[in-house]
Predict the 3D structure of the following.
Amino acid sequence: MRIHLLSVGTRMPRWVTEGYMDYAKRLPPECSLRLVEIQSGLRGKGIDINRAITEEGERMLKALPAGSWVVALDINGRTWTTEDLAVELNRRIASGRDLALMVGGPDGLAPSCLARADASWSLSNLTFPHALMRIIIAEQLYRAWTVLRGHPYHRGA
């Protein structure tokens, strides 16, 4: 099984790329993490934000790997504990289906992406910069994997 992280935005700051890669490279081949960058829609004065979000959504849906179980990262989604995420990760590994995680741009995911998702996951009620989400997701996936393997990285209560 592979995990595909589809995230709006390209040309991230070096610290984002390095932080993401630090955790992504720790994951084993059985659940390797692959980043797919989706080009942002145009934003600025006089630009229709809804059109930008729609265009991002179209690009994201085209990039979804066929047959994957799709999760939308959305503030209105279900919150998971680390242990919940480990259970979900174990289900995906056992199923053999790839997992695709969709992260929107600064204005969120397109309604078409939310409608396509098999599940919706909220990392927090807090608002995070979308670039930082890459690092948080990679770290949480690594943490969930360590829970499954009994590795001491996660020191849950």
The two ends are 29 Å apart (CA to CA). The beta strands are 2-8, 32-38, 69-79, 99-103, 119-122.
